[in-house]
């Protein structure tokens, strides 16, 4: 069997507590997750449990207190250069137009400007932004900015894509369009994806596998489900598939108690 694209083994992350500098807070404890090349894995869990922390460890942005990270079998040191990231917030440079934003990653990698521009045009077309090539971020809608961010992530041709609630700020219709676009691109490129979401429907609709995290402290993986729904999928239509309902119930049975625990903790803060 081939090496996982991303292996997170027995990851523990302990922070100085935000509430009391004399205390420590262990967000993750012994969390293990392997993602195969080309596999789409979503991680769901209660609010504040450690989803972003896990993703940041995989991105090489955060060194775990214990445990190991491997990328295609090689120990990760520093930033994960085989990964592209798409986060919740805005990542476009306001002083650059759509095309200048999309081509920026290639320029920084010293790709000749004309080649970078041609590839950026191609990606803008793929994400439905060929009409907005010269628009600046403030001239684009939230959905258009997300499309530009997707092109910005994909143009570097990463082998692993890390997404942290990328569409949570979008209205439901735009969100579903973007989810379908991501699936279409993923089907054509088959990169490994680690997708973080609060939304169980989104996780099931998109993924090959859904992994469930416990409430913190000491968050770890408490269950995982293979999503055996047929592909290609339309994220809106797949929700009416009887198997979707079965999977949703089975996962929610595991997740519910953790969500309640997480909610309780938030109320106490
Ligand atoms: N740098 C840090 N210093 C102190 N505590 C931190 C730090 N980063 C994360 N934490 C704590 O670790 C826990 C997990 O945070 P994280 O952001 O990973 O959770 P999450 O599941 O992504 O949250 P959400 O569902 O709200 O997006 C939280 O209690 C958070 O306050």
Automatic annotation (TrEMBL):
Coiled coil residues, start to end: none
Originating organism: Advenella faeciporci
Keywords tagged on the record: ATP-binding, Cell membrane, Membrane, Nucleotide-binding, Transport
Entry protein name: ABC transporter ATP-binding protein
Positions of the ABC transporter domain: 6-240
Stored CDD domains: ABC_NrtD_SsuB_transporters
SMART domains: AAA (SM00382)
SUPFAM superfamilies reported in the protein's UniProt record: P-loop containing nucleoside triphosphate hydrolases
Protein transport recorded as keyword: no
UniProt cross-references to InterPro entries, sorted A to Z: AAA+_ATPase (IPR003593), ABC_transporter-like_ATP-bd (IPR003439), ABC_transporter-like_CS (IPR017871), ABC_transporter_ATP-bind (IPR050166), P-loop_NTPase (IPR027417)
Pfam families named among the record's database cross-references: ABC_tran
Family statement: Belongs to the ABC transporter superfamily.
GO molecular function ontology, one term from the record: ATP hydrolysis activity
Keyword Zinc annotated: no
Source species, domain of life: Bacteria
PROSITE patterns named in the record: ABC_TRANSPORTER_1, ABC_TRANSPORTER_2
């Amino acid at each position: 069997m081939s090496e996982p694209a991303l292996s997170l083994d027995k990851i523990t992350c302990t922070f100085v507590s935000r509430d009391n500098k004399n205390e420590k807070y262990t967000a993750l404890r012994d969390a293990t997750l392997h993602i195969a090349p080309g596999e789409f894995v979503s991680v769901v869990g209660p609010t504040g449990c450690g989803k972003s922390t896990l993703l940041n460890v995989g991105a090489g942005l955060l060194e775990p207190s214990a445990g190991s990270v491997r990328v295609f079998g090689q120990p990760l040191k520093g930033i994960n250069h085989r990964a592209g990231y798409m986060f919740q917030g805005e990542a476009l440079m306001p002083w650059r137009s759509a095309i200048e934003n999309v081509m920026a990653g290639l320029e920084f990698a010293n790709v000749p400007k004309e080649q970078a521009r041609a590839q950026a045009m191609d990606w803008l077309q793929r994400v439905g932004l060929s009409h907005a090539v010269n628009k600046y971020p403030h001239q684009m809608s939230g959905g258009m900015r997300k499309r530009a961010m997707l092109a910005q992530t994909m143009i570097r041709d990463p082998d692993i894509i890390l997404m942290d609630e990328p569409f949570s700020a979008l209205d439901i219709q735009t969100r579903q369009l973007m989810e379908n676009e991501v699936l279409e691109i993923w089907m054509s490129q088959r990169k490994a994806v680690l997708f973080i979401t609060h939304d169980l429907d989104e996780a099931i609709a998109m993924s090959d596998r859904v992994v469930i995290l416990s409430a913190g402290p000491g968050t770890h993986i408490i269950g995982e489900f293979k999503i055996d729904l047929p592909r290609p999928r339309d994220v809106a239509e797949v929700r009416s598939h009887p198997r979707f309902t079965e999977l949703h119930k089975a996962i929610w049975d595991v997740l519910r108690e953790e969500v309640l625990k997480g909610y309780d903790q938030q109320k106490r803060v």
